[in-house]
Amino acid sequence: MNDQNAADFPTYLNEVADRVTVALDRLIPPAEGPEAQLMRAMRYASLATGKRLRPFFVIAFGELFGAPEKSLLRTAAALECIHTYSLIHDDLPCMDDDDLRRGQPTVHKRFDEATAVLAGDALLTLAFEILSHPDTHQDGSVRCKLIEKLSRASGAQGMVGGQMIDMLAGDVRQDLNSITRMQRLKTGALIAYAGEAACILGGASDQQRSAVTGFTHDLGLAYQIADDLLDVEGNEAELGKGVGKDADAGKANFVTLLGKDGARQRVEMLAEQAKEHLAIFRNRAHLLLQSVDFVLQRRH
Amino acid sequence: MNDQNAADFPTYLNEVADRVTVALDRLIPPAEGPEAQLMRAMRYASLATGKRLRPFFVIAFGELFGAPEKSLLRTAAALECIHTYSLIHDDLPCMDDDDLRRGQPTVHKRFDEATAVLAGDALLTLAFEILSHPDTHQDGSVRCKLIEKLSRASGAQGMVGGQMIDMLAGDVRQDLNSITRMQRLKTGALIAYAGEAACILGGASDQQRSAVTGFTHDLGLAYQIADDLLDVEGNEAELGKGVGKDADAGKANFVTLLGKDGARQRVEMLAEQAKEHLAIFRNRAHLLLQSVDFVLQRRH
């Protein structure tokens, strides 16, 4: 980690978050007509303050490879639509039944359940509309590649598959392998997509691509373990969302399987490993290096 | 209508339905691993007997324009994924709260609500994965055009927007214009997409395209009015789904606004108009001509 640049990262992350919010504001249809409540709900969920971590990885890696800014921003916005839809549906009473998200009432609390289902569906659909448009990239086969990868990362064999396993987790015995696979699907796949999309748009070499994949894989897992630590140690006021859910639901997680110390060590190990993958980019990757500590620090 | 071919249509429709079911069976991931319940629910909803009307229009118009069979079948399957996801979510307790669909328990009744939400999300996502794959068409910009049109037809400014209006309909005054717009979004947009996709894949001329658009517009509306008539006249045993919902929910529909006779006349008028659009295709469109009476007959 480069101490000279230690102050850069939060500034850069906020700047990226602001750009993504502006892009989403433009891309989500205006709240007009008798269906206006749908767009209001989409906006309420999408424009709320978030870290925009997945967009950050799209843009930071994409800039490293010299990918066009507009392509990166639209792809980052599409990815954030998918992430936001998954939070809306995950928070529903029949799923995790959460009342708070990003420091505000969840969509089904602020509006109602039907609106939450539909706003999620509409954001999911919007993600693919954004990517399919020629503004995202002049080459249709590049746009299709972005769509194919995003649909795989977020569908039955990616994020949604992981959510299904998580919903059923109370009923089956879980070991470290099964928890790791579940998290790789549920949260890892979208983080990995952020890197993949940047590689596609920036024409990354095979060597660069495998460095990016290694980084997002390790960081994604570290992020989840840190999240489980937070589930034990955190408190509601600090996070703006409910905590201690896994224990209540009788679900195993990294902390119940590894213990607190074991989980902390695993996070450290993965964080170091993630940084090592970036070595080939030298100090051009300093913001990405800083992101590792920043992302994990606030979570353990 | 060509009497010589009167027997052809049901056979052709069944044949198309079978081909689409086989395609969906191949395209939906196998039910494996701890997430198997997700795939089982996707299959349960998608492979159930249905008319496959939207796929029929993709394939019948596509064949008229000489579009490649494989492209048509994959596009038809993607469209059916969108239609099926919308039924699963629409049937949820927080939406229309239906227990029966296609003659069997709805997904949330057969499985549970969380599985229904996720199976819908996964089918929605799968539709775009199918279209983005090079097997759908060798030209990426054609695939992207299919994706862009489908996302618009099914998103906040299409089907999902129409569903939002329908959910809120109990609370606002509705006239014929607002009901017509709602239905154009909720059910018309996907039927229109079937025709649009065929035009894209078959390289239809502007004149052909506008005939197709006119046809799907009129037929889509006729279909909905016929459905409203069924809501009043039908019975549960015959249809395998609950009826009389609109009246119970205090919602206006075409029958409450036009009366039974007025609604029947409107259906007839739209059916004739739909057929007139097909005149430019002469008797090459005989199956499409027959589809009009077939589709509307069983519904009024």
UniProtKB/TrEMBL annotation, chains A, B:
What NCBIfam families does this protein map onto?
Answer: FPPsyn
The record's InterPro entries line, in alphabetical order, gives: Isoprenoid_synthase_dom_sf, Polyprenyl_synt, Polyprenyl_synt_CS, Prenyl_diphosphate_synthase
What's a Gene Ontology MF term here? transferase activity
Record EC number: 2.5.1.-
Keyword Phosphoprotein present in the record's keywords: the answer is no
Q: Which UniProt keywords apply?
A: Isoprene biosynthesis, Magnesium, Metal-binding, Transferase
Statement: the UniProt record of this protein carries the keyword Transferase: yes
The Swiss-Prot or TrEMBL record lists the needed cofactor(s) as: Mg(2+)
Q: Which family is this protein grouped under?
A: Belongs to the FPP/GGPP synthase family.
PANTHER family (UniProt xref): FARNESYL DIPHOSPHATE SYNTHASE (PTHR43281:SF1)
Name recorded for this polypeptide:
Polyprenyl synthetase family protein
